[in-house]
Amino acid sequence: MSALRFRTWPITATSTILPQLQSMGLRLSAEDIDGTTANSSSKPTISEALVSVGSTGRGGTGSFISDTGLIITNWHVAHEAVRVASIKDEKDYLRDGFSANTQSEEIKSPYECWITTSCVDVSDKVLAVIKAEPDPLKRANAIRDCTQSIASSAQQDAEGVRCDVQEMLPNESYVLFTQTRLQDVRIVYSPPKSLGNFGGDTDNFEWPRHTADFALLRAYAAPDGSPAPYSEDNVPYKPRSSIVVSESGAEQDDFVFLLGFPGSTMRYAPASRLEFSDQVAVPAQVKDFGRKLEMISRHEKASPEAALKLKGIKKGLANEFKRCKGKLVMMRKLKLLEERKSEELDLIERVGDEAKVPLERLGEIYNEFKELSALDNALSALHGIYGGSALLAVGHFLNEFVNHEFAKPDHERESSYRERNIEMRVKYFNTRLDDVVQPFNCEDIAHAIEMASAFDELAGVAGIIGEDIEAAVKSSHEVLSANFEKAMRGDAEAIDTVRKDRFVLAAGSTYDVYVKNRDKEKALISERDELFAKIIELQRANAGEGVVFYPDCNGTLRISAGHVSGYNAADAVFHHPKTTIKGVMEKAADAKAGGGGGSDFDCPDRFVDLIGNQPALGDVPTCLLYSTDTVGGNSGSPVMNAKGELVAVNFDRQRQGLMNEYKWSKDYSRSIGVDVRYVLCLVGIYDDNKRVLNEMLRK
Predict the structure, then answer these.
(1) Residue 694 — left, alpha, or beta (φ > 0 → left; ψ -120 to 50 → alpha)?
(2) Coiled coil located at which positions (predicted)?
(3) Which H or E element spans position 150?
(4) Does 517 or 266 have the greater pLDDT score?
(5) CA pair distance 486, 494, nearest whole angstrom
(6) How many domains does the chain have?
(7) Residues 151, 21 share a domain
(8) Whole-model pTM?
(9) 622 is in which domain, residue-wise?
């Protein structure tokens, strides 16, 4: 069943797939790559150079490229760190770029980076809990408690360590991941937006690309090398492993592989789930994201400060908006739903009711999700998710914490409210409160109230917030900003204060509805996973020879491989796999002449002058196209050659590759990376930062 073939594997499977990787062109051993398994050798491995990077250690992928903690990732992954620094320093580093010529100039950021150090199978412990509890809701909560307990015991409040248990296959496989947590990450280099986001939304998910979507960060540690929060006394972190930067890049047909932390895929999804995504979930997201982007386009014009505060959610929403629209188009163009239905009919013909009964029940479950979707969307709006109102989001979170979860023993709380997770929640919501643009919040709150008014049980929200939404936002923003973190730390006075806030009270008025809906969905998902496991077991037992099953992606460390390769974009249209700086100049000139794209193709005058004075630079490659299997979360993944040297930094997929969440195809799935030669050109020639260039090249 071709739809079930995987082209991205857990890092722990490296030794299993090594013969296939070596037949494709790899010149390394499994011991050179995987440093997470118990039988790994004592020598440094490539996986130890990989980091998950973001404001809470998650968001994208990065990799160490020097023995002094230098990390390369994407411009769009570093975007939030650069945006926060821009607001703090009152300098628009997003627009103008940033280049630290000395170590002391490197800028403090809110980011962390996490290094995966071990993967341990804990399936027996979790499965014992699953088998002991027949009730779906109780089983879901039991799995939550079991996995949190395993992670907490492994972590034991160790400084600089994070442990989490991840489901690999539902009701079958669970793995404990341990990560070193580096909390002091600083900005070293970021190109200006006109290069780092060249092409903007116009070129997003398109090929050819000419985008310098890379940035450089540095991890710091205490003087003794141990992980530590930011301090002026900290020193550059010395990673156990780092990736060598290739000066020659890669060419057509070269073998490449990458490691990273891809988000979620649905490669095994039953037809009912695909249908729900196609008809309900994704169209709702397209509508919601489009509305918010239109709001942002108006409110960001109020001031440079408003624009900077809204840029974070704007960047994410614009990417998701186009990605969701592309997914709908490609799912229908490739007739994936019809293909999956055919596969399921074939399975039923072979095994009968053993497959028919669970597949029919899965269909019923997704029909129930459809019936819940309108209420679910209204509650989501009231909770400010997907870049909605920060006041609604904080109000909901605080209500659940101070009025319901805080009094419980830690081991009985919902996961987000357990002590081990509070710090990350505080960090996330503090940023949202710092970024409040009041007119945007007012409009989003009004929309949420309108959605809630369709349900009698939610209608009370309007009266609690009041008719003067602007006054409510201003007052609550001051109160919540001053008391949120204190309340989360258990301060009695702060808890008493936030309990009286109108957004916390509004969340309280809908809490019973929210819990009923949440628990209903929990139970349905728990039952779905049990049925899903049965179907996967049947598919595995009846799969053709050579079909290998691996877990869906879930944000944990993965490896994928392919070749530098173009593709047939349309009838008589072939796209070659490499672009050059000449293409940057052509797109910029065309836009300036009124040929389309507008400001998406603005180019710095200094860059134009540089290429004009040194025309040979026009032949420097800018981006590469290759056939690895990537999804969201692979942003920033190091793309390496057969020897494990960095040749590009992954940042996107072309439009046809938007189907990767559901299916990989050798014909149309292509990923896009910034060519390392463009990176070196910008750092070393355009910005003349010899300090960083020499560090990258180990000179």
Answers:
(1) alpha
(2) none
(3) helix 136-155
(4) 517
(5) 6
(6) 2
(7) yes
(8) 0.93
(9) 2-262+558-565+618-696
Q: What is the mean pLDDT of residues 495-514?
A: 97
Rg (C-alpha) for the chain, rounded Å, is 25
In this structure, the answer to whether residues 387 and 244 fall within a common structural domain is: no
Asked if 61 contacts 260 with a C-beta cutoff of 8 angstroms, the reply is yes
- Best CA proximity match to 521, nearest among 210, 231, 276, 336: 276
Distance CA 250, CA 238 (A): 28
| Residues 501 and 628 placed together within one structural domain of the fold | no
User: Is residue 301 situated within a structural domain?
Assistant: no
The pLDDT tens digits of the residues spanning 281-307 come to 999 999 999 999 999 999 999 999 999
Residue 78 lies in a domain: yes
H-state helical runs in 189-303: 193-196, 200-203, 271-276, 282-299
Q: Any idea how long the chain is?
A: 699
pLDDT in tens, 33-92: 999 986 555 789 999 999 999 998 888 999 999 999 999 999 999 999 999 999 999 999
The CATH code of the domain that includes 223 is 2.40.10.120
Annotate 486-504 with three-state secondary structure. Answer: HHHCCCHHHHHHHHCCHHH
Q: What mean pLDDT comes out for the span 380-400?
A: 96
**Per the domain annotation, does 637 fall within a domain?**
yes
Domain contains 641: yes
d(CA 636, CA 647): 12
* Residue 10 shares a structural domain with residue 144: yes
